[in-house]
Design goal:
Four Helix Bundle (Hemerythrin (Met), subunit A); 55% helix; 11 strands; alpha+beta; 511 residues; 3 domains; single chain; Formiminotransferase-cyclodeaminase, Chain B, domain 1
C-alpha cells in the first residue's frame, strides 16, 4: 500500500455489537481496505471504525459502510449523549502516506456525491472539504442534531445541504463528510455524576472559549457508569498535546474538588503523541525518537536494506531512466537537510550547558522527523507522478472521444506532477525555518552543518520550483498554473532569505 488514506466513519450505534461487526465486514469486503480499530460507547450510543485503504478504493469501502448503516440504523429510534445528524454521522478522510490533503478533499467530495446520488442522503462538507466558511467547524454543521435539521432543512436556506435534495433521509438523516489532518479523540472521566461540572470544565479548556487553542471539548453524562465525561478532540496534537489536555482538565476539575476517574483514547493515536506525553511526565532528559525500541528496530531494518541507500538512489538516478529525476533528487536533498537538523538537535539536547533551550530543541527535533519522512515519501511520489503523465500520453487518440479523454487524463496527471514538487518546496521551507532556529540556539560546533543543511534545503526549493514550472507549462487551467507558480516563487524567495541568514551566522562565527 503506497498511497494510504485513513477513513474514520462515526456511526450512531453503540449498543449493538453485531451491527458494528457487519459494518466493519462491509468495509473489508473491498480489497485493499483494512479495519484497524473499532470503538463502541453505550452511553454515547456511537461507534467509531478506523480503517485505511489505498486511495483508489477508499471511497468504495466507505460507501459500502454508509449504505449498510442506512439500512441498519434508524435515527427515529436513536437516543444517546453524543450529538448526531445521521446513521453515518461523520465521514472524514485523512492523508497518511503518498497522498495530499488536496487528494483527500477530492475523495470527500466524491464520497459526498455518491452518498447523495446513490443513497438519497443529504450531505454537508466540513473542515478542509467545506464549501462554505460557516461549515468548516463540525459543531456548527451539526448544531441541533437530527431532530432540528429535520424541521429546518426545507424551510431555512442556511440549512440546505451542500449536495443532495433539501430533504432529510427519513431514517438515515444526513451525513457530514470532510477531509482533515490526523485528530486525536480523547476522553477524560470525572469521579462525579454532576453533569454541570463536566460542562464547566469542558468550557474552560476548549479553544473557542479561551482555553487550549487546538482543543474541542464537550461535557457528557455516562449514566451506565455513574460518571461524567469531558469528551475532547485534539485537532492539532503537535500544538495542543495530549498532556496539555490532561493537565488542563485535571486543574479545572480540582477547582470543584473532583478527582479524575481515568481517560480513554477513541480510535487510534500516533506514536509521537504518546512519546511526547511520556517525555513530559517522566522528564526524560535524553528523550528522542531513537530511544523507543520499536523505532530503533525499524531504523535498523531500513539500514539493512529495506529502503534504498543514498548510493542506490544515486545509481537509480544515473541509470538513464527518466525517473527518478530532478524532482525526486530535490526531495532527497531536503531530506538530508532535515537529517542534519536532527543531528544538530541531538548534539544539543540533554546537555547541561544548553538546558535553557532544551524544550525548543526538543520541539525542533519532534518537527524534523515527520518532515524528513514526508520528503522521503515525496521522492517516491515524484517518480510515480511522472509515470502517470507518461501513461496518459500513451492513451489512444484515434477518435474525438479518445482524444478528449486523453487530453483530460494528461491535464490531471500534469496537475499531480506539479503538486508534488510544490509540496516538496513547502516542506523544505519548514526544514529551513527549523535549521535557522537550531543555528541560533543549538550547539555552535555544528553551525557549519546548519549552513550545509540550509543550502541543501534551498537547492531543493529551487529545484522543486523548476518542476512546478515545467509541469504547469502543459496545463490549460490558467488559474491552477498561476496559483502554483506564484506559490513556488514565494517559497523560493523565503528560502533564499533564510539560507542567507544561516550562512551569515556561520561566517560570523569564524571571523
Amino acid at each position: 500500500m503506497e498511497r494510504i488514506v485513513e477513513c474514520v466513519p462515526n456511526f450512531s450505534e453503540g449498543r449493538n455489537a453485531e451491527t458494528i461487526e457487519r459494518l466493519a465486514r462491509a468495509i473489508e469486503s473491498v480489497e485493499g481496505a483494512v479495519v484497524l480499530d473499532t470503538h463502541m460507547d453505550r452511553d454515547h450510543n456511537r461507534s467509531v471504525i478506523t480503517f485505511v485503504a489505498e486511495r483508489d478504493v477508499v471511497v468504495e469501502a466507505a460507501l459500502r459502510a454508509v449504505r449498510l448503516a442506512s439500512e441498519l440504523i434508524d435515527l427515529r429510534h436513536h437516543t444517546g449523549q453524543h450529538p448526531r445528524l445521521g446513521a453515518t454521522d461523520v465521514l472524514p478522510f485523512v492523508p497518511v502516506r503518498g497522498v495530499t490533503m488536496e487528494d483527500c478533499v477530492r475523495l470527500a467530495h466524491e464520497a459526498g456525491e455518491r452518498i447523495a446520488g446513490e443513497l438519497n442522503i443529504p450531505v454537508y462538507f466540513y473542515e478542509r472539504a467545506a464549501l462554505r466558511p460557516e461549515r468548516v467547524n463540525l459543531e456548527d454543521v451539526r448544531r441541533g442534531g437530527f431532530e432540528l435539521l429535520r424541521e429546518e432543512i426545507e424551510k431555512i436556506a442556511a440549512r440546505s445541504p451542500d449536495i443532495g435534495a433539501r430533504r432529510i433521509h427519513e431514517s438515515a438523516g444526513a451525513t457530514v463528510v470532510g477531509a482533515r489532518p490526523f485528530l486525536i479523540a480523547y476522553n477524560i472521566n470525572l469521579q462525579t455524576d454532576d453533569l454541570s461540572i463536566a460542562r464547566r470544565v469542558a468550557r474552560a479548556v476548549r479553544g473557542r472559549d479561551g482555553g487550549l487553542r487546538y482543543l474541542k471539548a464537550l461535557g457528557f453524562e455516562l449514566a451506565t457508569r455513574g460518571l461524567v465525561q469531558v469528551s475532547m478532540n485534539l485537532v492539532d496534537y503537535e500544538k495542543t498535546q495530549l498532556h496539555h489536555a490532561f493537565e488542563a482538565v485535571r486543574r479545572e476539575a480540582e477547582r470543584y474538588g473532583v478527582p479524575l476517574a481515568g481517560s480513554e483514547i477513541v480510535g487510534l493515536i500516533p506514536q509521537a503523541a504518546l512519546d511526547r506525553a511520556a517525555e513530559y511526565y517522566l522528564q526524560i532528559k535524553n528523550f528522542a525518537h531513537g530511544v523507543v525500541l520499536e523505532n530503533r528496530i525499524e531504523a535498523a531494518i531500513r539500514a539493512k536494506g529495506e529502503e534504498k541507500s543514498a548510493g542506490e538512489f544515486a545509481e537509480d538516478v544515473a541509470s538513464g531512466e527518466p525517473a527518478p529525476g530532478g524532482g525526486a533528487a530535490a526531495a532527497q536533498a531536503a531530506a538530508l537537510g532535515a537529517a542534519l537538523g536532527e543531528m544538530i538537535g541531538n548534539l544539543t539536547a540533554g546537555r547541561e550547558k544548553y538546558s535553557d533551550v532544551e524544550q525548543e530543541v526538543c520541539d525542533a527535533l519532534n518537527d524534523l522527523k515527520p518532515l524528513r519522512a514526508r520528503l522521503e515519501i515525496a521522492a517516491h511520489d515524484d517518480a510515480q507522478s511522472f509515470a502517470a503523465v507518461m501513461e496518459a500520453r500513451h492513451m489512444p487518440d484515434g477518435t474525438e472521444d479518445e482524444r478528449l479523454a486523453r487530453q483530460s487524463e494528461i491535464e490531471a496527471a500534469l496537475k499531480g506532477a506539479a503538486t508534488v514538487p510544490l509540496e516538496v518546496a513547502g516542506v523544505s521551507v519548514q526544514v529551513l525555518e527549523l535549521l535557522e532556529t537550531l543555528a541560533e540556539i543549538g550547539n555552535p560546533n555544528a553551525l557549519s552543518d546548519a549552513a550545509t543543511g540550509a543550502q541543501l534545503a534551498l537547492a531543493a526549493v529551487a529545484s522543486a520550483r523548476y518542476n512546478v514550472l515545467i509541469n504547469t507549462a502543459g496545463i490549460e487551467d490558467e488559474e491552477f498554473t498561476q496559483e502554483h507558480r506564484s506559490r513556488a516563487d514565494d517559497l523560493l524567495e523565503r528560502a533564499r532569505e533564510i539560507a542567507a541568514r544561516v550562512e551569515a551566522m556561520f561566517l560570523d562565527s569564524i571571523e
